[in-house]
Amino acid sequence: MISRDHATLRLAVDLAILTVRESALQVLTITRANDPFRGQAALPGGFTRTDEGIEVAAKRELLEETGLDGAGMHLEQLSVYGEPFRDPRGRVVSVPYLAIMPDLPVPTAGSDASTAAWRPVAEVRGTLAFDHDEILDEAVERARRLLEFTTLATAFCEPVFTIGDLRAVYETVWGEPLDPRNFSRKVVNTEGFVEETGEKRLPGVGRPAALYRPGGQKDLNPPILRTR
Amino acid sequence: MISRDHATLRLAVDLAILTVRESALQVLTITRANDPFRGQAALPGGFTRTDEGIEVAAKRELLEETGLDGAGMHLEQLSVYGEPFRDPRGRVVSVPYLAIMPDLPVPTAGSDASTAAWRPVAEVRGTLAFDHDEILDEAVERARRLLEFTTLATAFCEPVFTIGDLRAVYETVWGEPLDPRNFSRKVVNTEGFVEETGEKRLPGVGRPAALYRPGGQKDLNPPILRTR
DNA sequence: AGCCCTTATCGTCCAGATGACACAAATTAC
DNA sequence: GTAATTTGTGTCATCTGGACGATAAGGGCT
User: Fold this and answer.
1) Which of B73, B64, B40 is nearest to B113 (CA)?
2) What is the CATH superfamily name and number for domain B10-132?
3) How many CB contacts within 8 angstroms connect chain A with chain B?
4) Do B10-132 and B152-214 fold alike per CATH?
5) What is the pLDDT of residues B130-154, one digit of tens each?
6) CA of B80 vs chain A CAs: smallest distance (Å)
7) Is the whole-model pTM more than 0.90?
8) Rounded to an integer, what distance in angstroms lies between the CA atom of residue A35 and that of residue B2?
């Protein structure tokens, strides 16, 4: 007994690419060139192709939209959005991914990327096409949790960074100030979070800070919990 | 410039329904009646229908396979499985859900459910059709994490339960023994985890235990972390 | 009844983690 | 030189969680 009422549909991947930039949590948005929602901001994304895996499609879109090779990059899958009428063109199910990257120059490469721009999350919230506002909210919430339980904060930083840089990431993403001294102690004492390079950076002002690179550990144990 | 190479595909929902039964973590499996993988064990599931949301489809399948109304039940979406050739019949992308329920009688209602049976996870691991082994592994891992950070352990229990019942859930899912005294202290002192009923249960042996029902809180703060 | 066995529950102790914060160190701005 | 700024070390009180002793409350047994 096989019901033939099987929905056939297209699968989209959408990207919530976050960075910390100018002391704010920012997201990469594009301006839609076509209907529906022409002219409105949206998350970059596109359809999966025949015989293409989903994460492969996400990395391809990432490359097309930002010119960046996501080969080594951490892509975190968010929950699927599949409301029947979420896309006026027909049944489209979206698999959104969260990507995290350092503050790189505004992307320019790729045909679709001409309208791509970093914009503060606080500013775009509530203005995106489709159900991308929900996706963005989920991405931000996921990022906050990832900072608690993984070392992924280093993905927001350049390959080499100071503890102060790392703290700025936490403070910006969480939206709350942290004690520099306790934070430093915590990070340095956590095995595998960061690794000393021996170098120091001269900031504009203040004492030079030791430079670190990401340690080998992915999970953070014990976690760095927010006080709620 | 629109590429027309858009994969059209069918969307399946699969259910990893877990329970604690006979001191073991068990999963509801069906025996496939049709090719491919005819006669082999698999997770219950089916295709989404036209104009049907994904979670709605999951709850419908749950009802069809187990005869249980998943209306109030917590369904946790796992990560999407979309390898191009994961299903020999064509492009099928699966959205798996984790469901948790108390030890109910073996389900019998529903046409597809005639072959449904609880089986220990340890026993079925590695024997499932499609990529359902991977899905099951992810479901178990997710369940373990949920016990750490949410009050979802109560979903494994009857509507009214003892702290000992709850501890048995943790011990079975985590696969490690816990100190009854510390566990009790932790649970009772955590605001909103459990709520006293005032009743007691007379077990076959030992001192009567106070009965509780689930508290209002969903998140567990602070979490109950496994010692790793 | 009296004893033992079992499970539940309370209390104590201590090690380790965390928050608050004083203070020293190393640089730039003036 | 002095002030300002940021980094980093140290201290201390508090809280949490693990280990575990002791007591409570039932049933089964003799």
Assistant:
1) B64
2) Nucleoside Triphosphate Pyrophosphohydrolase (3.90.79.10)
3) 95
4) no
5) 999 999 999 999 999 999 999 999 9
6) 8
7) yes
8) 12
